[in-house]
Inverse folding.
């Protein structure tokens, strides 16, 4: 198993390299974004650990270039930045996970193993119903290859329906799973959210995918 570590802080890079070696990985270190990108494009790595703040080329630029050139190697971002928008940006650019410094190596290792286990089955993380495609890892949905602009709640709702495609999903279950509300809560929230979701997922398209079972719930399927 070969891992590429792109990290400019020598101490942190050495800590990572040592940790990986002790756990049976072969780890190479690149100390700047440019070297990291070069190694990632030319070397044969199973995984990349990528710092965001790097000299010459940021981690974001590295992953953008990688994905642009069709390299689908899993990437875990490692960074001191913990702002939510940074995390979302990393995932949107195609990172597989995001770990905030400081962290303990065992946590990183657990995440690495999860991602490597997913391995070639990664396409299972993409659900397809008709021309609707939902990427559960990268949190994005498209219809007819057009990106749907969904809020996190809308994405959660759509994923829930898609995971149970063809089944009626009750409003109670939706309320529980998406809003963490219990049975007695006002499920009107659900209806409003579904309406909004429909306006993005169904309204612009001829084939409707979200169907209502009056008084019961909703079903997502191609009819
Ligand atoms: Ca750095």
């Amino acid at each position: 198993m070969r891992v590429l570590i792109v990290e400019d802080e020598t101490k942190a890079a050495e800590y990572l390299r040592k940790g990986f070696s002790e756990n049976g990985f072969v780890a190479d270190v690149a100390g700047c974004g440019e070297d990291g990108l070069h190694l990632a494009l030319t070397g044969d790595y199973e995984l990349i650990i990528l710092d965001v703040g790097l000299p010459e080329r940021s981690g974001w630029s590295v992953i953008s270039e990688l994905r642009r050139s069709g390299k689908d190697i899993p990437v875990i971002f490692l960074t001191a930045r913990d702002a939510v928008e940074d995390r979302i940006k990393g995932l949107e650019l195609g990172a597989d996970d995001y770990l905030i410094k400081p962290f303990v190596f065992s946590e990183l290792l657990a995440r690495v193993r999860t991602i490597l286990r997913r391995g070639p089955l990664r396409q299972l993380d993409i659900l397809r119903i008709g021309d609707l495609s939902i990427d559960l890892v990268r949190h994005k949905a498209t219809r007819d290859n057009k990106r749907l602009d969904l809020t996190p709640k809308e994405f959660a709702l759509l994923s829930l329906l898609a995971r149970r495609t063809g089944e009626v999903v009750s409003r109670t279950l939706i309320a529980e799973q998406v809003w963490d509300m219990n049975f007695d809560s006002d499920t009107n929230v659900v209806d409003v959210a579904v309406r909004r979701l429909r306006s993005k997922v169904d309204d612009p398209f001829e084939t409707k995918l979200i169907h209502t079972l009056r008084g019961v719930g909703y079903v997502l399927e191609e009819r």
Observations:
- The chain has a mean pLDDT of 88.
- The two ends are 45 Å apart (CA to CA).
- Residues 8-9, 51, 53-54 surround calcium ion (CB under 6 Å).
- The first strand starts at residue 2 and ends at 6.
